[in-house]
Write a structure and sequence with these properties.
276 residues; mainly alpha; 62% helix; Family with sequence similarity 98 member B; FAM98
Length: 276
């Protein structure tokens, strides 16, 4: 007997459609086949260029950008490409930059967070040294136990760092199916929140908050910077933990469920004994 066929895996086009719908897009590209066909045509596709213009207008209003993507440049493909290029450049889109320029953007973000004056140098190593000096200066002003000891107490060389990246990629691939399954369960749960009439008017607000949570913000840098306190495993089912987290509702609901299950088990056992 054949088992149930596995559900089709989510596609990148499906994710894009979900995002467009969450953003409020009402155009003709809300079907996967139409979106795929338009994307294959690129900027020569009228629907695709209209989608680019619409997305540009939404982003411009939110980010207060100077550059814009206009319908006037659509008739001239080269001008239209220049408009999109200028728009993405103002957004510091990493696709337009080389590897070193991407690093500069990330290091400059560190400068902003740490309050370091904007650097005039283009030397990445010099900029990183400035970041290191600033971090050491901040750490010198707090207690030694404030940050804690690192879990990883050795410095990785370039070969070890590359090997660690490969291990991370392998683990990501191995757990991809499980992650997608959990995300689908979460999607269904979140969608159920909007069934009530009162929640239907909040659909856009829920999507705006929830959609960014689809993608992890944890990187390899977080792993390398982990402190010893993360290695402490706290048993949430221990007596001490339950004593501090118990409340009246637990006693009512969990107690009723427990006794219902216990009675059901006893009934089933008695039925089994009577048939022997």
């Amino acid at each position: 007997m054949r088992g149930p066929e596995p559900a089709p895996e989510p596609t990148m086009e499906g994710d894009v459609l979900d995002t467009l719908e969450a953003l409020g897009y009402k155009g003709p590209l809300l079907e996967e086949q139409a979106l795929t066909k338009a994307a294959e045509g690129g900027l020569s596709s009228h629907e695709f260029s209209e989608l680019c213009i619409w997305l540009g207008s939404q982003i411009k209003s939110l980010c207060n950008l100077e550059e814009r993507i206009t319908s006037a440049g659509r008739d001239d493909l080269e001008s239209f490409q220049l408009e999109i290029s200028g728009f993405l450049k103002e957004m510091a889109c990493p696709i337009l930059y080389s590897y070193w320029e991407i690093l500069k953007i990330e290091v400059q973000a560190m400068f902003d967070i740490l309050g370091i004056p904007k650097s005039t140098t283009s030397d990445i190593l010099l900029m990183l040294n400035q970041v290191e000096s600033k971090v050491k200066d901040i750490l010198s002003k707090v207690q030694k136990s404030h940050v804690g000891k690192p879990l990883l107490k050795i410095d990785l060389n370039s070969e070890q760092a590359e090997q660690l990246e490969r291990i991370n990629e392998a683990l990501c691939c191995e757990y991809e199916c499980r992650r997608l399954m959990l995300m689908k369960r979460l999607d269904v749960t979140v969608q159920s929140f909007g069934w009530s009439d009162r929640a239907k008017v909040k659909t856009d607000d829920i999507a705006r908050i929830y959609q960014p949570k689809h993608y992890t913000t944890i990187t390899m840098a977080h792993l390398l910077a982990a402190r010893e306190d993360l290695s402490k495993i706290i048993r949430t089912s221990s007596g001490a933990s339950q004593e501090k987290t118990a409340c009246a509702i637990n006693k009512v609901l969990m107690g009723r469920v427990f006794w219902t299950l216990k009675i059901e088990i006893i009934v089933q056992l008695k039925k089994k004994d009577s048939t022997l």
